[in-house]
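Please decode residue identities from the backbone states below.
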């Protein structure tokens, strides 16, 4: 079956592809808290606080923001919970997925996917209601999802994202934050689907690589990404390294570093890397709802270990004993 058709069909049936709605959630936490169901999650750290957002797939369509000071217990950062609402000066009326925060200094960007297109909104604080001056996607020429913006030491910006071509593939281009556009002539595909873990066949689909996140440690760039269909039990996370933000890339031979065999839950992937207040490198990600049900997906946080004993590129692994199940209180 054609990959794009499969993607749209699954999204329509399982990810609440619906027109803009305004029915609020009525679920309230008890004294122990209620587990958080953000897929494709991202964590932003500022002034000792953690801010969590992600794919909700519930009305009102858009994105909510949670705040915490310990990564375990969270509360809404705004009284109405929402930092972006469908139809309020923002692009899209369905499929609000995979957000990322970025601090430009004078404003905050909120990159996200809607209608299978990357869009960029802005606000004056991390807790702002994010809007667009011109309501439009970043690149309307073709479908593109899962944005991740990275600023290098030389001041250049790079937008990593996914484009469709009988599957999902990672791409990168230089990005102009002033115009909110890709720099002409810089768009290029990152790498091929060529490791066995990236397509196990547990859930038949065209090749899929998605959910990019980039960090730099010393002189090396580490690109984390997920592979396999999100409904697959083998959805997992690996990484590749390079001497520049655009490659050439070398995949970690020990991939995947996050999978059901490592963290103990199916469908583990599509998240974000961040550094906690104690200097620990963490990865926030989602897992399937249960062994037999995919959605709504559950949010998890795990510690990343960086082994520098053998030089660069460093070996990165996860500590399964460190997994946090965040709750809203």
């Amino acid at each position: 079956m054609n990959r794009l058709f499969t993607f749209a069909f699954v999204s329509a049936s399982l990810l609440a592809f619906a027109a803009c709605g305004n029915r609020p959630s009525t679920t309230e936490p008890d004294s122990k808290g209620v587990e958080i169901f953000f897929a494709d999650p991202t964590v932003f750290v500022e002034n000792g606080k953690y801010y969590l957002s992600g794919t909700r797939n519930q009305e009102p369509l858009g994105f909510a923001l949670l705040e915490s000071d310990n990564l375990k217990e969270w509360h809404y950062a705004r009284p109405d919970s929402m930092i972006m609402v469908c139809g309020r000066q923002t692009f899209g009326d369905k499929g609000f997925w995979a957000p990322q925060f970025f601090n430009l200094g004078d404003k905050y960007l909120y990159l996200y996917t809607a209608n299978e297109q990357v869009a960029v909104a802005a606000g004056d604080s991390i807790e702002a209601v994010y809007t667009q001056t011109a309501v439009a996607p970043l690149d309307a020429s073709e479908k593109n999802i899962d944005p991740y913006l990275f600023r290098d030491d030389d001041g250049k910006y790079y937008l990593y994202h996914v484009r469709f071509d009988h599957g999902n593939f990672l791409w990168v281009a230089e990005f102009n934050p002033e115009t909110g556009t890709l720099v002409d002539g810089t768009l290029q595909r990152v790498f091929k689907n060529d490791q066995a873990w990236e397509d196990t066949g547990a859930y038949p689909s065209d090749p899929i690589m998605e959910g990019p996140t980039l960090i730099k440690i010393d002189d090396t760039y580490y690109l984390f990404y997920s592979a396999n269909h999100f409904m697959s039990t083998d959805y997992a996370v690996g990484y590749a390294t390079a001497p520049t933000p655009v490659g050439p890339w070398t995949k970690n031979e020990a991939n995947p570093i996050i999978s059901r065999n490592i963290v103990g839950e199916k469908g583990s992937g599509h998240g974000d890397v961040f550094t906690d207040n104690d200097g620990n490198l963490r990865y926030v990600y989602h897992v399937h709802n249960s062994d037999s049900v995919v959605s709504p997906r559950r949010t998890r946080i795990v510690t990343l270990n960086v082994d520098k004993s053998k030089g660069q590129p460093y070996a990165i692994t996860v500590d399964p004993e460190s997994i946090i199940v965040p709750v809203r209180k």
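Observation: The longest strand covers residues 298-307.
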